[in-house]
Amino acid sequence: MSLKQKYESQIRPALMKEFEITNVMAVPKMEKIVVNMGTQDILKDKGVREQLMSEFAKITGQTPNARLARISVAGFGVREGNPVGLAATLRGGRMYDFFERLVAVVLPRQRDFRGVPTKSFDGSGNYTLGIAEHTVFPEVDMAKVDKPRGLEITIVTNTKSTDRARKLLELLGMPFAKEEESGKN
């Protein structure tokens, strides 16, 4: 059973019962997952850019968009309009597939993994997670990687409540750290 089918048949009814929701459209659900990778100025080199975009596409399942600097920052050597990162917004089936791989394969592969911190909710029902090395994804060929890069993954939900969003992610399989451990991270 896919994660989307599990949500529709088991998780959604459980959330409706727990939070006493009568309208199916008001039940917490994931709307999208936004994946970002900061790349500094390496996107200027066409060969490196193509390799990085290929790796990112393998990780997310879709071609990324290059993000351009909005302002110039002399201290960082960044000029307005220069490419500074890659991003992809996942919805529907790709979103559920990515989330399932993230929870089942990627997070457990990280060193000293004891769960994700619970303090990463933004107060509006969205959860942001940082991954230090994109090489933990099994789709990335280690022989072709010049250096590991970090990823930022934001899970956007339709609820404005942190408690409801956390319960949704728990039921979907997100491995949250125990309360006393998440304060140490």
Write the layout of secondary structure elements.
Blueprint: H1 3-18, E1 30-38, H2 46-60, E2 65-68, E3 83-90, H3 92-109, E4 127-131, E5 151-157, H4 162-172, H5 179-182
Antiparallel strand pairs: 1-3, 1-5, 2-3, 4-5
Helix pairs in contact: 1-4
Domain Large ribosomal subunit protein uL5 N-terminal: 23-79
Family: Belongs to the universal ribosomal protein uL5 family.
Keywords: Ribonucleoprotein, Ribosomal protein, RNA-binding, rRNA-binding, tRNA-binding
Structure description:
The chain contains 5 helices and 5 strands, in the order H-E-H-E-E-H-E-E-H-H. It has 185 residues and is an alpha+beta fold. It has a single domain, classed as 50s Ribosomal Protein L5, Chain: A, CATH 3.30.1440. A 5-stranded antiparallel beta sheet has the order 2-3-1-5-4.
Query: CATH homologous superfamily, by name?
Result: Ribosomal protein L5
Q: Count the domains.
A: 1
CATH topology: 50s Ribosomal Protein L5, Chain: A
Beta strands, count:
5
Q: In the CATH classification, which architecture applies?
A: 2-Layer Sandwich
Number of helices: 5
Distance between the termini: 34 Å
Give the SSE string: HEHEEHEEHH
Give a quick account of the main beta sheet: strands, pairing sense, barrel closure.
5 strands, antiparallel
User: Which runs of at least 5 residues are low in confidence (pLDDT < 50)?
Assistant: none
* Broad CATH class: Alpha Beta
Query: Which percent bin holds the helix content?
Result: 25-40%
Structural class: alpha+beta
